[in-house]
Structure formats: structure tokens, C-alpha cells
């Protein structure tokens, strides 16, 4: 927190509080002076900001002890998670929960929520992919797996979203002012090379050797973040790399020869590499700086991994038995040619031996089938930035294509279809293909998605490698953060029936609350908790938007990145449809309607025009509807600004219905669907991603599914192309209302309506009627609160499968071949 964020509270602190402070801080600070010097303030002049600082530092010190023990005991064998994104959210609450001292912290005399609320989110990610990485870290530590995460220490995380006059405005997220959760490791640095040239010579044995030289050097500095497991001393490590200009003699020479300005300029150029998180989700932009980030982080991480392995003095062939590296999407794919380069060029292994090690080390997780999101890099760009890697990629491709040719001698087209090098102008490297060729396992993130990758984008690779290389690990979420931390009262209610909190480590135990689905008292308690959570969200909405919403209304929530494939436009068109219907009713009829609050939240990538139009429309509809005296509580439309992890912790427990309505076949899995159901909300969704497995687990009578199926989407798109789009009657009325200027100048939204009329790639019209009807049946169902509660309780009871712990166990068994390593109590 910056000094300016802290309102200094001069008032005397009550005596009990001073005592509590002293008692508590005793675990983290030697004495009052120690505390004061750490925080540079008087103990008796302490506001929430200082309370946060003190508490965080105290808990951090607790973590360090277990962290050191864990790192000493996990010497060399590790899983490594390479992810460009870790969407961690806040750490303090989680640290207190995992260390089991949350109650102690309550003694401090502050409202814990206020103290916790001071912390800024560590928002080093865009959306589901980054959050998944964070949930996996929590599960790995909680299950005692020796594992490290490797990422980039962005100076600016995902931008902060402000809504000004209904439009999204992006504000930089400078989050590092005060971050007690990271430890700079001044002794851990790696020099990373870019550009330069490749020199070849023959060594004494006549073997050709390649040397990559004369490049520009940037230094990677390590910052470590402790990752505490729940109810275990295991504390793993997240290592984030920060870029700095290399500070070798070279720089001093420059400095001494009077090139002071140049040397400062070099410094800034180097620091740019880890400066900012690219804010695109599911879109590949091909910027040079992004490629630099990728190589910088892959190379630093691999260097670190290899350095640790070499200390073990084991033979190279042991490398894949000691180390498993999981690639979170294709962003870390350069790690594949980089490891090959290290083994061949630096360690002198022959190509095939090295390649065998590489393939057995890596696993690749795919998160999308959408063409626009599949990463490609132009050959001239790679040639310029990483000349030796390009040679290696070509050689990998040569060996691969020779194999394909031998195996499928008659299928000449196959070679160009599967080639890692796309023969376009300029030529492009297809990163997903490189990731498949360089990994021993490839997985999708939900059953439908894993099937789709095998039958569409990676079909040929299934022919080449066989079915066994391709597998599925359906995503999950950590119940520690997403149930216990976000919804402590529900967690407590469940614990009261299950005789404790074991379910937080074995979520399948939840099935035991099925027995209470018909229990009057339990239902009442469950309902009261939902109402309290909705009230908390209503208060937050009032504070931040000024709009009053009734907690008794049906809360209908869609929060996620804004994307056409996720179809927030379908939702807002549906809301307009409802508004028009309400307007056409008599006041008596309107009174009979189920009151609703439609809540939206999510960021649009700054360059994604259509997504920004959707945000604008939601805000304009809200402005009109919320101020329409005829409508009152019957409908409210809210856009929650700057949706992020910590806001999700307030939002997820407060839904009656949440929306997961992507065009079938486009949402790889989705994970917020799991969060909402686990917190006692039902969902409206398409047959897409993990919705399908959620339906299988909780029962189709407990979910509202609608819309065309994935297998029919292509045919419908074809129809659109050849016969034009048929606009649904109800949707036409919505478009007419928009065109009439009801929600402001209609030009502002013409892109949104035109795209539906012209090709409707996302099937907004084709699914519209079914969508609206399903919402009508939700209104009906909600009226019978007892039946509704029955459904929600059963749904919660059956969500055990969707814990991230289960994912980690599946990865460990199918892909990494590793076992947990429990710390002995004495820490040995
Ligand atoms: O990953 C999401 C999927 O859309 C979602 O269905 C799935 O549940 C989740 C976890 O598996 N993907 C996602 O969040 N992707 C990104 O955020 C992302 C970020 C950057 C880039 C691509 C995708 N990029 O190319 O820069």
C-alpha cells in the first residue's frame, strides 16, 4: 500500500487492542521497536493499512519456516509449472487460513474484512488460465507434492478497469508498492541472450558444434513467493523472474567511456521485458516484446531447473525421472527447443539422446480450439531474436516430418498439414504443433474439449502418435479459497453436519450433505446463508454504483472476460427482451413477475472493439432500466467494475443463477461454473466445456441447459453463409429497440447488431428463443423456494469431482508419474 492510501488514524487505540497486538506480533516481531522499524510507524498510531502490513509480515514469517524446511527436503525431484500467468488474488486471508491462525488474527481488534481488504490482488493473469495455475499451486502444496511454479514478475498486472460514462477505461495496475509476499533472491540470477549469430565449428572428434554468440544480454532476477498448503507444513515456491540490464564489465565500460545516457537507456530497455502482462485472452497478437518475454522466462526457468539437477550429479537420462515440466498452454513452448539446445550445444549430448529426454520431460495442456487463439510466430522474427532456436526448430521438424513420411508414405498432404512450419508468407511456426511434438502427453481441460482437439485441430497428430498421447484432465478449483474463504458460513454449516472440515481436503465427502436436502432446518440455514451473501453483494453494489438492489430478487450473474464466444451479448439482448416484455405489461401483471437483478462483470481486451461495445451496451441498458419508475424492483441491470479474484470471492457466493452460455464447442472448460454451483447457485448453460460434466454429476434436473449442440454448430454456420441468417422474432424486437435509440445513439451498437445479421458466427440468433424460454422456466422454478433449495443443496453435495486436488492427482498419475512427499514433523 502506498503512503497515500493510508488514512492515518490518530485516535488512541484501546488497551485490549494493544495487548492483542503485542501478543500476536510476538510471533513475527521481537518487540515493539522491531515492529515499528519494520513498518516505520508507531504501534499506537495504527490504522487498517498498518494492521495489514503487520499481520502480513507476521504471517509471512511463519510461512518462511515451513518454506525453508520444505525446500530443504525437496532437493532435486520436482514438478515444474511453466505459466506466463498466475492469477493469485490476495494472499493474507489464504495464508491465515492455511496456517490455521485466522482466529488469532481476529484478536487484533480490527474487522478482519477491513484488514484483508487493504491488500491488492496479485493479478498476474487474464482469466481462467491464470486462475487455474493459481488453484493448482494451492492443491500441489496442500497435497504435499514437491512442485514449483515459474512465471514472470510483471511490474503491471492486468489493467484496472474503470467505467466512465458507460465505457471501459484502462488504468495501469502498479501493484508492487508494498508486497510482503515476495522475497528477492539477489543470489539467483541468470543471463539471457537475445539476437546475435550462430557460429559452427568441428570439435576434435569431428562433431559439428554450434555456438550462439554476440547477442544482447539481459539478466533475470528471481523473486520467490511462498505457497502454503492447507493443513500441512508443505510450503512450495512460486519463482517469478524480473528483467534487468546485465551489469557486467560491459556496462561499466560504457559508463566510463561517457555513454551514461546509453547505459541508462539499455537499463530501461531490459526492464521493459517484464514490465507488463499482455491483456489479451484467447487472441494471439504476435508482438516481438511478447516473444521476448516468453523466451526470457523459459530460458531463466530452464537454466534454474538444469542447475538444480546438475547438483544432484545424476546421469542425464535420469532427468525426466526427476523432473516433469507442465506447459500451461503454448506460451512456454520455447522451453522445448531451449532444453534441446542446452543438452546438445552446452552439454554435448547427441541429438537423439537429448530429444528423448526433452519429450519425456514435457507435458502440454491445451486451453482452446479457436483458431484466433492458436499461437504462431513468424520465422523472420524468430530468426532475428533467437537464431539458434530457429535452427533447432527446423531440425525438430525435419526429424518429425521424416517420421511422418515413413509412416504415411501415401498421404503427401499430411506433411504440409502437420508441419511445424506453416508454408505461408512469411512462414510461421505453429507453436501448438511444436508443443505436441516435444511433449509425451497432451491434455485438454474438459471431456468435450479433449475430444474436440482430437477430432479437429490435432486430428492428424492422433493418427501419427495414437490415442494414448492425448488425454483429458477436467479442470477444478480449490475449495479452500472458493468455498471456505469465500463463503465461511456455508463451510461452517457443512462442517457442522460432516463433523469437521475434512471435506476441504477430500471434497467428495460433500456427498454426505445430500441427506439434508429435505431437512427443514438445514434448508433454512442454507437459505439464510445465501440471503446474507446476497445482502453483502447488494451492499457492495450500492457502495460502488449507487444502485439499490433487493436481496430477495433473483440474482442472475455473468462474470468473466468479455468475449463474443462467451456471449455476454446474448445475455444483454435477453435482458432487453425482458425489459420490453415488462414495459408491455399492466402494473398488476408486472407485480406478478419474478424480480431480477442481472449482474455483469469482466474486462475487455483493450484492443477488442466488439467486447467494449458489449460493455457499453450493458451500462446503457442499466442506465435506462434502473431509472425507469415503471420497472422498480422488477428488473435491475448492474455492471460491476474491475472484476477480479477478490471480487469474485464476494460474487460467487451470491448467485441464484449464473450464466455459462458460450457457443457450444468454444469454451474449453470454464471454471467459474464450478465456483457458483459449489456456493449454492444453479446455472444456465450451453452443452459446452465442463457444463456437461457438471450436469452429469449434479443431475440434469438441477441445471438449466439450452441451445444448439457443438456437433451442429458448423452446419448452422454453413447455412448462415449460404442462406443468410434467420433473425429470431424476439431478437428482432430487441434490435428495433436498440435502433430506436432507446439506449442512446444506435450507431454505438450497430457493430453488435450487424454482426448477428451478417453472419452470426456465435449463433446468437439461433439460440435466442431457447435462451429466453429457459430464463422463463428459471423464474417459474425460483418461485418454489423449497424445491429450489432442494436442487441447490443436491448440487453442492455432488460437486466433489470439481476440486483441483483431483486434477493434481490425475496429472501426477497420468502425466508426471510422481508421488506426494510428506514433510516429517521435525522438518527433516
Ligand atoms: O482457460 C481459459 C479457457 O477459455 C477456459 O475455458 C478454461 O476453463 C480456462 C482454464 O483451462 N483460457 C484462458 O483463460 N486463456 C487466456 O487467458 C489466454 C491468455 C493469453 C493468451 C491466450 C489465452 N495469449 O495468447 O496471450
From TrEMBL:
GO molecular function, one term: glycogen phosphorylase activity
Residue list for modification N6-(pyridoxal phosphate)lysine: 675
Record GO cellular component, one term: cytoplasm
PROSITE patterns registered for this protein in UniProt: PHOSPHORYLASE
Domain of life: Eukaryota
Named cofactor requirement(s): pyridoxal 5'-phosphate
Reactions catalysed, as given in the entry: [(1->4)-alpha-D-glucosyl](n) + phosphate = [(1->4)-alpha-D-glucosyl](n-1) + alpha-D-glucose 1-phosphate
EC number(s) on file: 2.4.1.1
One GO BP annotation of this record: glycogen catabolic process
Class of enzymatic activity (EC top level): transferase
UniProt entry keywords in alphabetical sequence: Allosteric enzyme, Carbohydrate metabolism, Glycosyltransferase, Pyridoxal phosphate, Transferase
InterPro entries: Glycg_phsphrylas, Glyco_trans_35, Pyridoxal_P_attach_site
Gene3D superfamilies attached to this UniProt entry: Glycogen Phosphorylase B
Role this protein plays: Allosteric enzyme that catalyzes the rate-limiting step in glycogen catabolism, the phosphorolytic cleavage of glycogen to produce glucose-1-phosphate, and plays a central role in maintaining cellular and organismal glucose homeostasis.
Family to which the UniProt record says this protein belongs: Belongs to the glycogen phosphorylase family.
Protein name: Alpha-1,4 glucan phosphorylase
Species whose genome carries this gene: Aureobasidium uvarum
Source organism phylogeny: Eukaryota, Fungi, Dikarya, Ascomycota, Pezizomycotina
Amino acid at each position: 500500500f502506498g503512503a497515500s492510501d493510508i488514512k492515518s488514524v490518530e485516535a488512541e487505540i484501546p488497551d485490549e487492542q494493544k495487548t492483542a497486538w503485542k501478543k500476536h506480533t510476538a510471533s513475527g516481531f521481537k518487540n515493539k521497536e522491531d515492529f515499528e522499524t519494520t513498518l516505520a510507524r508507531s504501534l499506537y498510531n495504527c490504522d487498517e493499512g498498518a494492521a495489514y502490513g503487520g499481520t502480513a509480515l507476521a504471517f509471512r514469517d511463519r510461512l518462511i519456516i515451513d518454506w525453508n524446511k520444505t525446500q530443504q527436503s525437496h532437493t532435486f525431484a520436482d514438478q515444474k509449472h511453466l505459466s506466463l500467468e498466475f492469477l493469485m488474488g490476495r494472499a493474507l486471508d489464504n495464508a491465515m487460513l492455511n496456517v490455521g491462525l485466522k482466529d488469532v488474527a481476529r484478536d487484533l481488534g480490527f474487522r478482519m474484512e477491513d484488514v484483508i481488504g487493504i491488500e491488492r490482488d496479485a493479478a498476474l493473469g487474464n482469466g481462467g488460465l491464470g486462475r487455474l495455475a493459481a488453484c493448482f499451486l494451492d492443491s500441489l502444496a496442500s497435497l504435499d507434492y514437491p512442485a514449483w511454479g515459474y512465471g514472470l514478475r510483471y511490474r503491471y498486472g492486468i489493467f484496472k478497469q474503470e467505467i466512465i460514462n458507460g465505457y471501459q477505461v484502462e488504468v495501469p495496475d502498479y501493484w508492487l508498492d508494498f508486497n510482503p509476499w515476495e522475497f528477492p533472491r539477489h543470489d539467483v540470477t541468470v543471463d539471457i541472450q537475445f539476437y546475435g549469430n550462430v557460429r559452427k565449428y568441428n570439435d576434435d572428434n569431428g562433431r559439428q558444434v554450434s555456438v550462439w554468440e554476440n547477442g544482447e544480454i539481459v539478466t533475470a532476477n528471481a523473486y520467490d513467493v511462498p505457497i502454503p498448503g492447507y493443513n500441512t507444513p508443505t510450503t512450495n515456491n512460486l519463482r517469478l523472474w524480473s528483467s534487468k540490464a546485465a551489469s557486467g564489465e560491459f556496462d561499466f565500460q560504457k559508463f566510463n567511456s561517457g555513454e551514461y545516457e546509453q547505459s541508462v537507456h539499455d537499463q530501461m530497455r531490459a526492464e521493459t521485458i517484464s514490465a507488463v502482462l499482455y491483456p489479451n485472452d484467447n487472441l494471439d497478437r504476435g508482438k516481438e516484446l511478447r516473444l521476448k518475454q516468453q523466451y526470457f522466462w523459459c530460458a531463466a526457468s530452464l537454466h534454474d531447473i538444469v542447475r538444480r539437477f546438475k547438483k544432484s550429479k545424476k546421469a542425464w537420462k535420469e532427468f525426466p525421472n526427476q523432473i516433469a515440466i507442465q506447459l500451461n498452454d503454448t506460451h512456454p513452448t520455447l522451453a522445448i527447443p531451449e532444453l534441446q539446445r542446452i543438452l546438445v550445444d552446452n552439454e554435448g549430448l547427441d541429438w537423439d539422446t537429448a530429444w528423448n529426454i526433452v519429450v519425456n520431460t514435457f507435458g502440454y495442456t491445451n486451453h482452446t480450439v479457436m483458431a484466433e487463439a492458436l499461437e504462431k510466430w513468424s520465422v523472420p522474427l524468430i530468426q532475428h531474436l533467437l537464431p539458434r532456436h530457429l535452427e533447432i526448430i527446423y531440425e525438430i521438424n525435419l526429424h518429425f516430418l521424416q517420421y511422418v513420411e515413413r509412416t504415411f508414405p501415401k498421404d503427401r498432404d499430411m506433411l504440409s498439414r502437420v508441419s511445424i512450419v506453416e508454408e505461408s508468407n512469411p512462414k510461421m511456426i505453429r507453436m501448438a504443433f511444436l508443443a505436441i511434438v516435444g511433449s509425451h502427453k497432451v491434455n485438454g481441460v474438459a471431456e468435450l474439449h479433449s475430444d474436440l482437439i482430437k477430432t479437429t485441430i490435432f486430428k492428424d497428430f492422433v493418427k501419427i502418435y495414437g490415442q494414448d498421447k492425448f488425454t483429458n484432465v477436467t479442470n477444478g478449483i480449490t475449495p479452500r479459497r472458493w468455498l471456505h474463504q469465500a463463503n465461511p458460513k456455508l463451510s461452517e454449516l457443512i462442517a457442522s453436519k460432516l463433523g469437521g472440515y475434512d471435506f476441504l481436503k477430500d471434497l467428495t465427502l460433500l456427498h454426505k450433505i445430500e441427506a439434508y436436502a429435505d431437512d427443514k432446518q438445514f434448508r433454512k440455514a442454507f437459505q439464510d446463508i445465501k440471503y446474507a451473501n446476497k445482502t453483502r453483494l447488494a451492499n457492495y453494489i450500492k457502495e460502488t454504483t449507487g444502485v439499490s438492489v433487493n436481496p430477495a430478487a433473483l440474482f442472475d450473474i455473468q462474470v468473466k472476460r468479455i468475449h463474443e464466444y462467451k456471449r455476454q451479448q446474448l445475455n444483454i439482448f435477453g435482458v432487453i427482451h425482458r425489459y420490453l416484455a415488462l414495459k408491455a405489461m399492466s402494473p398488476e401483471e408486472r407485480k406478478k413477475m419474478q424480480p431480477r437483478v442481472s449482474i455483469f462483470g469482466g474486462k475487455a481486451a483493450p484492443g477488442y472493439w466488439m467486447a467494449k461495445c458489449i460493455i457499453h451496451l450493458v451500462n446503457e441498458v442499466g442506465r435506462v432500466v434502473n431509472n425507469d419508475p415503471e420497472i422498480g424492483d422488477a428488473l435491475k441491470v448492474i455492471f460491476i467494475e474491475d472484476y477480479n479474484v477478490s471480487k469474485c470471492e464476494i460474487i460467487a457466493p451470491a448467485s441464484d443463477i449464473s450464466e455459462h452460455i458460450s457457443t457450444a464447442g468454444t469454451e474449453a472448460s470454464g471454471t467459474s461454473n464450478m465456483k457458483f454451483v459449489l456456493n449454492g447457485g444453479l446455472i444456465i448453460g450451453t452443452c459446452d466445456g465442463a457444463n456437461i460434466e457438471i450436469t452429469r454429476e449434479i443431475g440434469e434436473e438441477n441445471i438449466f441447459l439450452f441451445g444448439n449442440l457443438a456437433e451442429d454448430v458448423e452446419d448452422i454456420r454453413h447455412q448462415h453463409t449460404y442462406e443468410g441468417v434467420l433473425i429470431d422474432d424476439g431478437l428482432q424486437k430487441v434490435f428495433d429497440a436498440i435502433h430506436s435509440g432507446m439506449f442512446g445513439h444506435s450507431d454505438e451498437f450497430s457493430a453488435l447488431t450487424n454482426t448477428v445479421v451478417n453472419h452470426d458466427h456465435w449463433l446468437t440468433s439461433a439460440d435466442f428463443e431457447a435462451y429466453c424460454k429457459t430464463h422463463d422456466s428459471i423464474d417459474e422454478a425460483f418461485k418454489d423456494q423449497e424445491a429450489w433449495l432442494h436442487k441447490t443443496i443436491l448440487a453442492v453435495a455432488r460437486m466433489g469431482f470439481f476440486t483441483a486436488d483431483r486434477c493434481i492427482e490425475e496429472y501426477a498419475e497420468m502425466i508426471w508419474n510422481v508421488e506426494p512427499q510428506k514433510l516429517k514433523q521435525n522438518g527433516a
